[in-house]
Amino acid sequence: MLLEINNLEFSYLPDQKLFQDFNFSMEEGQVIALAGESGCGKSTLLSLIYGLHDWRKGEIIFNGKKLKGPKGNLVPGEADMKLVAQQYDLMPYATVFDNVGKFISNINLKAKNEKVTELLEAVGMEDFAKVLPKNLSGGQQQRVAIARALSVTPKLLLLDEPFSNLDTSRKFELRDKFFSLVKNLGLSVIISTHNLEEIIPWVDKVAILKNAEILQYDSPELIYQQPTNEYVAKLLGEVNVFEDSEKIRLNLDKNFYFPQQIKVADQGLEAEVQESRFAGSFFWNKVKLDDKVLIIHTLEKLEGKILLSFCG
Ligand SMILES: Nc1ncnc2c1ncn2[C@@H]1O[C@H](COP(=O)(O)OP(=O)(O)OP(=O)(O)O)[C@@H](O)[C@H]1O
C-alpha cells in the first residue's frame, strides 16, 4: 500500500466538525479521483496528506513511513510528494522555464533543458518559456504548475482541480498529454475534481466525499453501475432517480438510470415525448412516463409516443 490513512481527525476550528475517524488507502501506480460537492473537504484532504496541517488524531502512513505533518518537516510538504494546489505558488520573478526547472538539478544543464522543454510541450506552454507568471492567464499558470509537479517524478502527485481553469479545447489536449505522461512514468496520483466525467477514462478508482466522509470508493464502472445514493449518482452527471415505490411499480432493477441507459425500443414502457433538443453528439429529450418526467439521450430527434427499455 502506498498510502494509508487511519482514523484521522482534523478540523480547522475547535468546534468545527470535519474529518472524523476518516480512513482511506491507495496502491502504488494508481490514479484516484476525489470527487464531491464544493466544501466537502477535497482540498483539505490533499493538504493533510501533503503535510500542511497538523491532525488531531489518527495516522497517515506513506510508503511504509508514518508521517508527522508540518512539525516533522523543515520545509512545508513531504519530499516524495508534489501538490499542485488551487493557488499555483509559482515564483513570480522567475520565467516559466525557470519555474518548471525549479526542482531539476543544474549538474547536467543539457539534460535539464531537454526535460523542461519536454514538459512545456506536454502542457502546451513551449512558446511561453521566457515569460513571467504575472503575464500569464490563470489557466496558463495552472499548466506551468502541472509541468513543474511532473518535473521530478514524485512518488505521489496530488492535484487540486488541475483542469479547472482551462478552456474546453485546451483541456482535452492537456488531459490526454498529461495522463499519457502519468501512465508512462507509472505515477501515483490523487486528483480532485468537480467534474468527474472529464477525467473518468483515466482513473483507476473514484473516492466520493461528502461532509469529509467517503460515501463510495470503487472503480469507475462500479460507481456508474451502482452509485450508493442520489448524491453519488448526481456527481456523475444528469441522472433519472426512481423512488423505491416507482422502481417496484415499473419493475426496474435499480434506483438510478443515466440518460443513455434508457433506450427507445420496439417493446417496453410507453412514454410521450415532451421536448427533443439537439445537444451536439446526441439529442437531449424530456419524456413523460405516466406522471414521471425522464431525461433520455438518443441519436435521432424524437416525437410522439415511444417505447422505453431500461438497461443496466
Ligand atoms: N482555513 C480554513 N479555516 C476554516 N475553515 C476552513 C478553512 N479552509 C477550509 N475550511 C472549511 O473546510 C471545509 C472543507 O473545505 P475544502 O476547501 O477542503 O473543500 P473542497 O471540497 O476542496 O471545496 P472546493 O471544491 O470548493 O474547493 C469547508 O467547509 C470550508 O469552509
TrEMBL record:
Family annotation (Pfam families): ABC_tran (PF00005)
This protein's UniProt keywords: ATP-binding, Nucleotide-binding, Transport
SMART domains: AAA
Residues in ABC transporter domain copies: 3-236
GO molecular function annotations of the record: ATP binding; ATP hydrolysis activity
Signal sequence bounds: none
UniProt entry tagged with the keyword RNA-binding: no
UniProt cross-references to InterPro entries, sorted A to Z: AAA+_ATPase, ABC_SmlMolc_Importer, ABC_transporter-like_ATP-bd, ABC_transporter-like_CS, P-loop_NTPase
Database matches in SUPFAM superfamilies: P-loop containing nucleoside triphosphate hydrolases (SSF52540)
Protein name as catalogued: ABC-type Fe3+/spermidine/putrescine transport systems, ATPase components
Taxonomic path: Bacteria, Pseudomonadati, Bacteroidota, Flavobacteriia, Flavobacteriales
